[in-house]
Amino acid sequence: MSDAAPARRSGRYASWIPGVALIGIGLVFLAQNYLGQEIHNWWALFILIPVFFTLERGYASLQAGRSAEAIGQLTGALVLVALIVIFIFDLPLGQLWPIFLIIGGLSLLVSRSWRT
Length: 116
Hints:
Oligomer: single chain
Structural class: mainly alpha
Radius of gyration: 17 Å
Distance between the termini: 36 Å
């Protein structure tokens, strides 16, 4: 019986994630229509869907007191957001790859400071 409660809880939280992702994607397309700025790699917006799931899991891990796990999940979400920005704005990935090293280093520093 105790196994049913966590499944129901995660299902309740997970049900809003696709809705928020669709609202966000719709807002981007709406802004594109009104501002006249064309997005060439609009498909990258669909990477936002796993970002919301990852953020939700990271928040749940943080609430459960598993800070190391939460840092890992939040770092994964940050990497995906960086990829989205690079793809959406057609930035040169070959020149911006050190960003991912910086994100990894920040993740290590933050996780070490939370352990103490």
